[in-house]
Structures are given as structure tokens and as C-alpha cells.
Amino acid sequence: MRPRKQHRTPTLEDVARVAGVSRATVSRVVNGVATVDAALRLKVMAAVDTTGYRPNNAARQLAGRKAGSIALVISGSDGSAEQVFGDPFFGRVTGGVVKHLRTKGIHPTLVLADSESARGEAVDYVRRGNADGALLVSTHADDTLPGLFVDAGLPAVLFARPALHAPISYVDLAHEVGAALAADRLVARGCRRVATIAGPIDVPAAQDRLSGFRQAMARHGEPYAAVAYGNFTLESGELAMADLLARTPDLDGVFAANDLMAAGALRALRDAGRAVPADVAVIGFDDSAPASTSTPRLTTVAQPLEEMAAEMSRLLLDQITHAGTEPVCKIFDPHLVLRDSA
Amino acid sequence: MRPRKQHRTPTLEDVARVAGVSRATVSRVVNGVATVDAALRLKVMAAVDTTGYRPNNAARQLAGRKAGSIALVISGSDGSAEQVFGDPFFGRVTGGVVKHLRTKGIHPTLVLADSESARGEAVDYVRRGNADGALLVSTHADDTLPGLFVDAGLPAVLFARPALHAPISYVDLAHEVGAALAADRLVARGCRRVATIAGPIDVPAAQDRLSGFRQAMARHGEPYAAVAYGNFTLESGELAMADLLARTPDLDGVFAANDLMAAGALRALRDAGRAVPADVAVIGFDDSAPASTSTPRLTTVAQPLEEMAAEMSRLLLDQITHAGTEPVCKIFDPHLVLRDSA
DNA sequence: TTGAAAGCGCTAACAC
DNA sequence: GTGTTAGCGCTTTCAA
User: Fold this and answer.
1) Chain B contacts of A109, Cβ < 8 Å?
2) B 134-193: CB under 8 A from A
3) Beta carbons of A263 and B108 less than 8 Å apart
4) CB A264, CB A239: distance < 8 Å
5) pLDDT over 90 (residue B165)
6) Would you indicate the residue range of the signal peptide (chains A, B) (predicted)?
């Protein structure tokens, strides 16, 4: 005696019985295979409804087709996990991914790859068929993970262009455009002595923001704006600002490559007795939390992270269904958020 | 002809062949069933090593045992997703979960439940066997989700005590203790007129922080500290502070129920020309990003979120392996992080 | 204690 | 176009 048969969740078999067809036909309908008689298809769809049938992912996976899930891999240098997760950037990207994927009825599996061996395992995880593909979010641009996925021939899409060129799809921001937005705004408000606090030179995004800023300033007839480097932390921004102030005392505008450094700049400026934006205008990048909690609140360049994340998911899904397509990259435009600092 | 047989990932069958035993025996060894001859067990383990065998989750799941994965469900009111994910709180909890689970070789699946129907689907997801249990992180305390899991008899553990009492395990912070830490600090620095900015009364954590603060102040002989309410946003903190200042002009210390409201208080205080901490000392709660980016930097009460998240995962895993155990709750102690505001 | 064998729910040849 | 059938890798009675 099989107990509680009626409490079982309905299977393909059940639907087939109700519709009066074979399992195969139901499978075809459920998977949208074209070669099915219209009348039968309707009957099957009705049966699916009445039974409340939902495909069993494990069975699908085992039968050798799709896993019905994708991996969201967070990669980074050893032990950088704490830092990654504490950054709202990660949360916003994750949110965008989850939200988009949910409309397709799929839930991402979170895989942490914060060591070389963990990266290998992440690839294995997907290779084993636990996921149909991977969304890769790296903290460091020179990450080895994208390469591993490319080599394994597994569907994968990156958030942000990899430092090492690889044939892989990615979404990214038009960083130069964002930097130009900032430069233009500074010049438009009448700043004549503009400097910038750049991020680490080995981070592509930081490079792009710097070069975008320089080019924009050159267009405004100021090709030699002062530059100080930071590492994206508040403290480094504070130091860089102090440095800039020492080198260019008459400076009246600053563009920082991220909000945290801009917040640090605000601190240094206050300590130096300069009013913001009256004496010095400041613009940040990212529109992250510090931008709205700092005093004054930061004018900043915002990234459509959620949209980018959704697009990243879309690209991956496409790549999974249409195997063997060429890598694609989608670049998004940032916009300026005007607040009180510039 | 079966192609590329050698590139297949090893199965139980392969291990069995190498070890010279049956699949059943290998299965027993792999699953730690006691009734296996010691010698055979060793042989099997060796075979597992040489073949590099790893169990296939889909097959396990299909065969009716464990899914080998757990769901991390983010619940909240309709459309609150954006907000949730942008908050580093979520990221830190997620990080703690992922990090702990990884040591057990399992990866959480992220499930968003930001509507009543989505909550139903989240329960279904687990009921269908896609996950062995769920970790529930709610934005609102009166969430229906915990109840749904309890009713379905599915293993689940909550982050934070639910407003509606339910027989379910959870981890939480000793909020009263944290509030007392703040009160004590304020009194110890010599504040004589202390007020508090409380959070929404329907949030258990906010209630606890308020009552903990009041009790501590009562112990110091000040049972009637002024209270203003906010909703955890910076703006609400600013408003509440202005209100407090109007009602209690000679106030010299403030405890805000979270850092964002404390940052707002800082703003109001600056506008009112009060120096912090010289005129008015301020203490926040959470040790979140604004605490270290504000000026002055906030002295605040810190929660060991990652530890709490790890413990939450541990409780769930326990509950999964030892079915039918009583709900457990683990309360963690906060600590004071001294910075510049008090 | 160990092995043989029956599925778990589904997909994909292959035959009709 | 549709049905039949052979697995996918694993767990788990049931015998031995």
C-alpha cells in the first residue's frame, strides 16, 4: 500500500492520464516543442492547470537537460567575502538578478569563490549540471574566474569588463561618460581649477573614470587637471584631498572616482576650512549610501545597477538557450544626481 | 558507441567497480550508514578518492532524500525588494550564511518573497523538495512567512524574533543590552539630560531598544528620558532631533535606535549650532556604513551579524538532520564601538 | 553485512 | 504528430 497517494505532487504521468495522452506529449507541450497538434496541446494545457502540475527540476536535471537554476558567483581575493557582502553594491546587483530571474521562475544559487580552490569548485558546480550557467561578480578585475568558465565552455556573463581580455559576455557602465558628466557639471557651475581623486590604476573602471574626466576637461580647455590617487576608501579620499589642497591651494572643484572617497574629501575640506560647495564643489560616483548621508549631501554619478543586473541575467539566459552565440557586451549610461555638493 | 565515456563525471557505479562492491555499499559508506564492514568502508573510501567521486544532488533529490541545498528567503512587503537589497544588513547576513554553509559544501538558493503569492511559492519551492529547509530574513516583523513554514511543517529558522509568536527557531540580538550599553556610556561621559530617538513601535527590535534604554536610564535615576519617534530613515532622525531640541533645549545626550537616524540627528544638531560631542553626545545602533562615514564618526552599538547568520544556518542544518526537535532561539550580545560622537 | 532491483520524474531517441 | 522505452544517478526495501 502506497500511503497518501493523493498528497503527492502531480507528475507528468498524472497530467498525461488526465489529458488522455502520453507522457512524451505532455513533456513536449510543457517544453514548448512545436510539433504538437493544436487540439492536443490545449487539452494538455488544461490538464496541467487542473492538476496544478509543476515540473520537477531534479528530474529534469537528472534526465540530462537543464538544471533550471543559475549560479550567482561572487568572486574575490582570499577572504574578501566580508567586505564584498557588506557593500550595498553587491546587494543591489543581487537584487536586480533575483528580481529578474523570478519572473522566469528561476532562483539563483549563491556561490562564494573567494579563493583559488573555491573558484575551481564554483566551475565544477556548474559543470556538474547544478546550474545552467553562471553570473560572475568579481571584486577584482584580474580575477581568474572568467577565464575558467570560458575554458570550460560554460555559459557565463560578467558584471564589468574583465581586465584580462576574454571572449565572454558582460554588462558594464560607460564610466567615461559618467566622469564627463561630472566634469561638465563642475565647469558649468563656474569651477576654474578642477582636480580629481582617482581610484587604483589597475581597476578598469577607475582607469575609465580618470580618462573620461581628463578628456572632458581637455574639451573644456583644461587638459592638465591635478590628480591624486586613492583606493576607494574614505580615508584614502581624505588623504588625497589634503594632498590636492597642498599642491593646488586655489582649487575650486573636485571629482572623486567614488562616493566614499568623495566623503573623505568632504572631511578634508571641512578640516581645511573650505565651504562646500561655495569654496570647492565636490562630485562623487556611484550614488551609494554615503552620498545621501554625508554633509553636504553629494552630487554624484549614478549607475543603473539593478537594470544592469537584470540585463546580465537576460544575456545569460539567452546564452543558455542559444548555445554557441558570440559574446555580447551591453554598456549602460550613468546619470548625474544633483544634491548639495556641486 | 557511447562517446567520451572517460569524460563523464564519476558515478556511484564507477566507485563500486573500482572498490569491487555494489552501488548500495558505496551509497551506505558515502551516507555514513553504520552497518558497513570496516575493511570495505576503507576500500570504498579509497575508491572515492581515486575516482574523485562527488554525489549528484539531482539524483539524490529525485531518489527522495535530501536536496543538499537550502533556501535563503528574503521576505518583505510588496515591492520592498529594492530597499532590502540596498541595505548592507542583508548583505552581511547573506555573507555570514554563505560562508558558513560553504564549509558544509552547500550553497543557498536565493528566494525573493515580496508579495503574498511569492511567499506561497517560496513555501512550495521547499515543499517540492528543492531545498531541505529555509532561512527566513524578513523586513517586517509581522511577516506571514514564518507561519506558512510552521504550518507546512518545513524546517525553517528566522533572523530576528517574529512579532507574532510562533513555534519556530530564531537568532536575535539582545537589543535591550545594546540600548543599555549606550545609556551607560552617555551617563558615564557626564550627560545629565539624555533623550532617545526610537524606531517604529511595531518593530520588536525598536521596542526592545527603547525599553532597554529606559530601564537603563531608570537605573541611573532618570526614568523619564524624552522620546521622539522615527522610522529608521535619516530624515526621520533629523526631524525627531529637531523636535527633541525644541522640547528639551538643555539636552546633552541622545541615543538613536539606528545609525541612519543618528546621522540625521547629527545634521539637526549641526543646524542648531550644537557641537558633537561637546554640547550633545550621540550614539547610534548597528555599526552600519553611515556610522563610519558621518562627521563626527558615530559611536554605536554593533551587532555580530555574520556570527548570527552562521548560527542561524547551523540551527537549520540541525533541524534538518534531527527532525522534530523543539524550536530553539539564540540571542547574541552586542558591543559598543567607540568613535567620535560620544 | 551485503547485493539485487525497483523506482524517483523526466527527456530523448526511436518506432509507428 | 504521437507513443514506447531506455536511461539519468541515487536510495532503499527486500533477500540472501
Assistant:
1) 69, 107-110
2) none
3) no
4) yes
5) no
6) none
